[in-house]
Description:
Elements: E1 14-18, H1 25-41, E2 50-54, H2 60-69, E3 75-78, H3 95-100, E4 105-108, H4 111-115, H5 121-133, E5 137-142, H6 146-151, H7 154-165, H8 171-176, E6 178-181, H9 195-213, H10 215-220, E7 222-226, H11 234-238, E8 245-248, H12 255-269
Parallel strand pairs: 1-2, 1-8, 2-3, 3-4, 4-5, 5-6, 6-7, 7-8
Helix pairs in contact: 1-2, 1-12, 7-9
The structure holds glyceraldehyde-3-phosphate (G3H).
Amino acid sequence: MTTSANGSFERTPLIAGNWKMNMDHLQAITLTQKLAWTLDDAKHDFARVEVAVFPPFTDLRGVQTLVAGDDLPLAYGGQDLSQFDSGAYTGDISGAFLAKLGCRYVLVGHSERRTVHGETDEVLAAKVKAAFRHGLVPVLCVGEGLEVRQAGTHVEHTLGQLRADVEGLTAEQATALVVAYEPVWAIGTGEVAGPGDAQEMCAAIRSELAELFGADAANATRLLYGGSVKANNAAAILAEKDVDGVLVGGASLDAAEFASIVRFESHTAA
Ligand SMILES: O=C[C@H](O)COP(=O)(O)O
């Protein structure tokens, strides 16, 4: 753990790239290699700023082989997991399989899972628990749609999702948890929430976690912002006190751009 410039608490910044349904297993190898080379050239210190990628399931074995074979300090994770451990759940992926592939993280409740796949908070709470059961760190995604933002109830709405999805966790689990605030209206649209918006929500999330799990746990939980993060807007967002990193979609498909975002956080955390 290193001390981030985001406050006096020790939270290792995390820059995460969600590839979504992009990159086949061959493209995944090329992208991972390019990212590793670029960060190595820049002498990136992975202990100070952690870097993780979230490839499609079909890429994970290839990424694992490359990371293990070349001893790369990159973390990786799945984009979803089943709330069940095994059985007749066609198309689902168990957290046990992800753990076996060396995943450190798993996304839970990305807005595309909530909207396209209709995942409810009840299901997501079960998925968060399944992640912990298999030794994976859930990156729980929460955030409001445009109508909610326009109605001015975005904080209440997002904290409602958070409360429902972390129900039943222990303080120890809350400490390990990563929460990504992703306003749906800013995802893939080019509309980025201002640094002040990101800070407002992350501060509200931290204070809600403090109420639920105590201040020590809340001060350890890493909070990310996601939604149209690019190399040209990352620095201002990453400078906010309660923002411990970013969850990057489109810009993580370009190794050079994603590496630039990592370097902004490295400078902020220096
Ligand atoms: O998981 C990533 C978010 O959905 C953000 O995606 P984006 O950077 O393409 O807007």
